[in-house]
Specification:
Length: about 240
């Protein structure tokens, strides 16, 4: 198996780029008002032969990402996996009892993560949904990446804040990830909204891209330009 690796630097996400393009006018306007430009560092691994093994591509990216995660600028930062139910459910007694952690797929192995937050409840008329955070270390990061690739209602975040797993912050993350459209939250993460929210808080996102029918897998570190520039320097060392 021959894997080709490349890094892509996108210094200004308000312009056309190869990392992440904003499409919604209101989000583009908000991005132009940030104190710093929104930038991205993308780690891309490609396999041209069949069959492709996404896990091997993710492992290859993680080898490169290790240097980034050890960078001085990220000292004291932690990785978090934001999880919600894939969609709204009827607020039955069983659903209300099981909440989030009792309903995630067993192959997610959530006990292998460092720790978990409280389960925060959200209501929409007669429907119910839950959200929470898992703290991720490098040993559980590969599993977290696989979860995010499989479930479009999950996301990876990087933060130095001690209260990142608080009920209040989870609620803010949820509202940023699933903004109201015609009075109802979306079921899949609105990445433009979430990226802007994290950037305003001086946090980072690790966006996973590449699907099983594609020839590549990528990790996109996205945040304010100053932080991303420091990560780029760490990758060169």
């Amino acid at each position: 198996m021959t894997i080709k690796f490349s890094k892509i630097i996108s210094s200004d996400l308000s312009l056309a780029n190869d990392s992440f393009n904003f499409n919604q006018p209101e989000h583009i306007l908000k991005m132009t008002k940030l104190s710093q430009k929104l930038s991205a560092l993308t780690l891309l691994s490609e396999e041209f032969d069949l069959p492709r093994d996404m896990r091997l591509l993710d492992e290859h990216n993680l080898e490169k990402a290790n240097g980034i995660l050890q960078a001085k600028v990220l000292k004291g930062w932690s990785i978090y996996l934001f999880i919600t139910n894939s969609g709204w459910q009827r607020a039955s007694k069983i659903i209300s009892y099981k909440k989030l952690w009792k309903t995630v797929p067993s192959n997610w192995n959530i006990d292998s993560f460092v720790c978990r937050s409280n389960e925060i409840t959200f209501f929409n008329e007669n429907d119910i949904r839950f959200a929470g955070l898992l703290k991720v270390d490098f040993n559980s990061l590969l599993k977290a990446i696989e979860i995010v690739r499989d479930d479009f209602s999950c996301a990876l975040c990087l933060s130095s804040k001690e209260d990142f797993m608080s009920d209040r912050n989870i609620t803010k993350l949820y509202k940023a990830a699933f903004p109201l459209i015609k009075g109802r939250e979306q079921e899949q993460i609105d990445w433009e909204s979430l990226l802007l929210h994290l950037a305003l808080k001086n946090d980072l996102a690790i966006r996973v891209s590449g699907s099983y029918d594609e020839r590549c897998a990528a990790l996109n570190f996205i945040g304010k330009q100053k932080i991303i520039s420091s990560l780029i320097v760490s990758l060169r060392q």
